[in-house]
Amino acid sequence: MSDKKVLVLLSNRLESFVNAYLLQKQGFDVIGLSFIIASKENAQLIDSDCNLGEIQAIKNTCDQLKIPFYVSDISDRFKENIVENYLSNRLHLISPPICNLCVKLRIQVLFEKMKELKADHISTGHYCKVQKNLQSSNFYIHCGVDRDNDQSHLLSGLANTFLEKLILPLGDLKKEEVLEIAKRAGIKINSNTLEKCFKNSKTLEGLVNRHIPKSLLKEGIFVKGRSEEVVGNFENQTKYMIGQQLNTNVGNMDKGQYIIGHKASKREIIVGTIEDLYADSVFVDKLESTPLFNSRKNFIAYAKSESLDQRIKCYIVNKTCNKVVVHFDEKGGPFIIGEKIIFYDKPVEGGKILGSGIIKSPFKFKKLHRADRSNDDKEENTDSSFTF
What we know:
This protein has about 400 residues and is an alpha/beta fold. The chain has 8 helices and 18 strands. The strands form 4 sheets. Strands 12-15-14-13-16-17 form a 6-stranded antiparallel barrel. Strands 3-2-1-4-7 form a 5-stranded parallel sheet, with helices on both faces. It is globular and about 65 Å long.
């Protein structure tokens, strides 16, 4: 059957095999592919569902479903794109969006292997959808029907080249339906591996302790907000991240303070209250935008990040290359430096992703200029961020 061969990303997670099973039922010729992300020398350090020890379990389930199975070692690319990126950011007290970076790397390699194996499509078990705009022929990531388990944010920033080949069957299902399908199909996965992920505190702290040279670890002082009052000392800046709440007493610092900024040149970590992480505007860098986003000059969208409980109405202005200024009707947050921020076209649930980027700096804006204001209006930045 033409145009029916699909390469499916498999991990030792239930969703990936239900995804493969559903594609089989739809008549696709399914091929399974898993990745080794940790070389032998650091396999014990990186705790992941795609580690060396999990490959046999994945193959056993492929045999059960009669799916041909391939394994690709991407440990070098994973180290370069994910591990080293994370370690570099931790030196500056920033935690990059490693889940999104990890998914993008896997889909990129999946796409490459699709061409090598002469397949027609790629597929993953994420709870979201990809849909084509019939007027423009561009593809967009849409939220899945399962609001509580929507994973659209993980696929933000994917190029149209990947999206036009991507199939996401689980986007139209709720998790309880996926579990029921697995039960009826007799798909069983070792439950002890279901929650394994590279992004867990044990793995990340182990990487920091093992791979960052001691010469780069700096001691310094905690200072309080703009007063610059010294309230304590630290011995190693990598033990802290912007947005982190300090639950222990340090020097003269009030208990429950948050890290709100970092001055590396002065070896200062700035602390304050949770309100200090709130703002009515943010600078967004490393913008990854869709054609619909690029076709508009100033417009309204709805922003969501890992630290935001819900989407917030925002005004996209001053787009330049891969940067953008985002304004909000009122002060909100928290906005954490280094977090991924996603722009949707709908306020509550559902809808599609218009673009995404990295929060570079929150700031206070003297007067909000709405999205439909003239380009002749001039913005005034009256209060810069604590972070440099």
